[in-house]
Amino acid sequence: MLEAIKYNNRKLEVLDQLKLPHSCTYQGVTNVTQTWEVIRSMKVRGAPAIANVAVLGVAVELNEKDFNSKEQLYEVVKEQLEYLQTSRPTAINLRNAANRIISLLSVQLQDNKLSVNDMKERIIKEAEDIFRECKMKNLAIGEHGASHIINHLSTGSQATILTHCNTGSLATAGYGTALGVIRSLHLRGMLAHVYCTETRPYNQGARLTAFELMHDKIPSTLICDSMVAALMKSKEVSAVVVGADRVVANGDTANKIGTYQIAVCAKYHKIPFYVALPVSTVDLSLRDGGAIPIEERPSVEMTYIQGVPLAPTDMNCWNPAFDVTPAELITGGIITERGVFKVQELEKKISTDKEDGIWY
Ligand SMILES: CSC[C@@H](O)[C@@H](O)C(=O)COP(=O)(O)O
């Protein structure tokens, strides 16, 4: 499995996903400014991967710095985490990871037994834990999702899944969320086929998901986004499984642009629609999806593909990177590392597990 993030001996490298599938080039990241740039430019993308790179970027810079006092360390790290949150506004995982670190910093600031160096080491370890835990959570999401889908298949059949965008090892610390469910189905011999959408305008499906599926030899077919309704009408699709960038209290879900129209088509064709995510993608501070900030990307990302113009280059474009799928269209359920549940149960299920308001 190709890794989006390599972190060894406190050195961080990210795979430049803008160059995939043609070349696999890793870029070293040594400070928070570079971290912001690799996230903003989408060299690293996908909600969990963004959060992982952000906290590891803080860790590698921290490792090289000395601080006069614990108060100074607290202020610097807090400011860096706030700055990193300006890189991409829709995915919530980065804010939740930042809150986990800031809350730990606050506790340590009050602990007189800890030196400034102890505090620095503890923060670096916390960032490393966030990264390490991400893959374990993905494996659990995969297992819960696969079991649930298998239990709902008719006897003797295998699942055919439609997915959108890239939610695999390239979007996480490894394995993947929606793609993790697909991987688990495949490993259990219960996957008939996967259809992945191209995912215009940035083609995460064609460039990244297709690449991961082929690499793992998972039986799969690429379709254009405009073929979804026709696919549902003419082929057997057991379920749609997608990822998420932010799920709010009523279950409304922000994910890659195009997710909403797939959910509308799925409802019409009575195909269960699932969203797979770690709990760190939940934002219970917002009641409904109307309040989720939707990032708009530059026109050039629509008018050009890898430097080649596709449209009149000075054409006006509307380029929202995400849309919001209303909870009522998430008919299959929410797949998390803690199990699968109905979207209406989200708030109750998650808030009973809440630890000090930190969702990571
Ligand atoms: C496990 S990744 C879930 C989502 O982050 C994914 O579906 C998505 O929308 C990614 O968008 P991107 O703009 O590529 O960062």
From TrEMBL:
UniProt xrefs under InterPro entries: IF-2B-related, IF-M1Pi, IF_2B-like_C, Initiation_fac_2B_a/b/d, M1Pi_N, NagB/RpiA_transferase-like
Chief location: cytoplasm
Keywords carried by this UniProt record: Amino-acid biosynthesis, Cytoplasm, Isomerase, Methionine biosynthesis, Nucleus
Active site per UniProt: D245 (proton donor)
Reactions accelerated catalytically: 5-(methylsulfanyl)-alpha-D-ribose 1-phosphate = 5-(methylsulfanyl)-D-ribulose 1-phosphate
Highest taxon of source: Eukaryota
NCBIfam families from the UniProt entry: eIF-2B_rel, PRK05720.1, salvage_mtnA
Summary of the function given for this chain in its UniProt record: Catalyzes the interconversion of methylthioribose-1-phosphate (MTR-1-P) into methylthioribulose-1-phosphate (MTRu-1-P).
Assigned protein family: Belongs to the eIF-2B alpha/beta/delta subunits family. MtnA subfamily.
Protein known as: Methylthioribose-1-phosphate isomerase
Taxonomic source organism: Limulus polyphemus (Atlantic horseshoe crab)
